Amino acid sequence: MDSFLISGGHRLKGSVEISGSKNSALPIMAACLMAEGKTTLKGIPRLLDIDSMNKLLGMLGCDVVRHEPAEGAGGDGPALNGPLDITVVDENRCEAPYEIVKTMRASICVLGPVLAKRKKAIVSIPGGCAIGDRPVDLHVRGLQKLGAEFHTENGNIIGEVRGRLKGCRMYLGGAQGPTVLGTINVMCAATLAEGQTVLVGAACEPEVVDCANLLNKMGAKITGHGTPEVQIEGVESLKGCEHRVIPDRIECGTFMIAAAITNGELELKHCNLDHLVAVADRLEEVGVNICRENGTIRVSSARRLNPVEMTTQPYPGFPTDLQAQLMALLCLADGISVVTERIFPDRFLHVGELNRMGGRVRKEGATAVVQGVRELQGANVMASDLRASAALVLAGLVAKGTTRIDRVYHIDRGYEKIEQKLVAVGAQIERINEKAWG
Ligand code: EPU
């Protein structure tokens, strides 16, 4: 298992290219299970979770080919990743087994597409994870309303459709509000249902919009995506198309905070500030300067950081996926900040680790009270989940001395080449292998 060694205290300065969105790419790749012919996806980042989805699509009878980038190609994100072609070659397979679902919860994205197209789906039930229980009841309820029948057996959800799914009007929200992947799963299935489906209480995240745009290119008839009410007119079939995924707004937000926490100056390329309005609002309140030029964002920070109140909310509110990273920044603000988590109330595993680095964060239920300190100190800390790990990297960049972060495979699941990108703008960060460490 790899670890990061970060020597803190270096101002970041320079330019970073933001990758394509992981959370857009995963459900979009799953949606390709419904298309006839080849779909070509561009901007797909190279990440562990993408490798897992490739493997799952292979198990489900897809031919998945990652091309090398074209020689001299420019403007395709940081790694100049070549396109990914996905073609369904065998429609008889319909199982997402535990061995893959346990490594990536987003495997649940295949449920709607496989069920709608192949009439049967067996998906291992994703267990809880470091950020909470994460049930999938809303996915199943939505698909049931379209006429699918479900039962569970030996840890698997087994869904079956007799004939064709039937469109209807349904409410899709739950106790914590809308569900992103649940909306996408039901929206995908509804594209091949008979008649009209209306999803009320749908998630409005840009990743839902991106998937709807892909489906429409494939021949689906979806309107209202990006609003809480999505209408889908069912069609007989979908065909392969070409699509570029949106920039990763969470990676972009993480680098905005990296600029702020190191009192640095970063230019972020290939990103969309329109997807980060709530994040920019909170950062500006903290004292961060953000300026937009074409597809580029320039971020720099004042020396004094103001404390703020922040509550995570469904889009367009502040994203839960940036809560931990903002908390790392607020650890160094001049006063008391209050951070409330409304999406995953237990998503606070980073609190203990930030406190080991000298932070003063007290958790009370789904709220954390952050008393700003003058400095953080390097320590040996443990990555627990993707975004908590990113928060520890940010803290390490500014901490006095050396920070060692163990289990960085969590980061590799969702941040493409994070250490190369950081080193290129002045960070001192080294990846070490546990064996080499001794
Ligand atoms: N929920 C239910 N029942 C369901 C589904 C969700 O009660 O059937 C609850 C969840 O427990 C949570 C809330 O609804 O309290 C919202 O969860 P949501 O379904 O929106 O989460 P998700 O779709 O499973 C995606 C991202 C997460 C991100 C959340 C919220 C992907 C692959 N995952 O998960 O990303 O935190 O939306 O924005 O897109 C990450 O990238 O680190 C990550 C965890």
Quick one: how many beta strands? 26
Strand content bin: 25-35%
Per CATH, the architecture of the largest domain is Alpha-beta prism
Briefly, what CATH class of the largest domain?
A: Alpha Beta
Number of domains: 2
Overall SS class: alpha/beta
Name the bound molecules.
uridine-diphosphate-2(N-acetylglucosaminyl) butyric acid
Contiguous uncertain segments of 5+ residues: none
Largest sheet: 4 strands, mixed
In helices, the fraction of residues equals 25-40%
State the distance separating the first and last CA atoms. 12 Å
Rg measurement, Å: 22 Å
In the CATH hierarchy, the third-tier topology of the largest domain is known as UDP-n-acetylglucosamine1-carboxyvinyl-transferase, Chain
Outline type: globular
Q: Tally the helices: what do you get?
A: 15
Overall pLDDT score: 94
CATH superfamily of the largest domain: Enolpyruvate transferase domain
Strand order of the largest sheet: 24-25-1-26
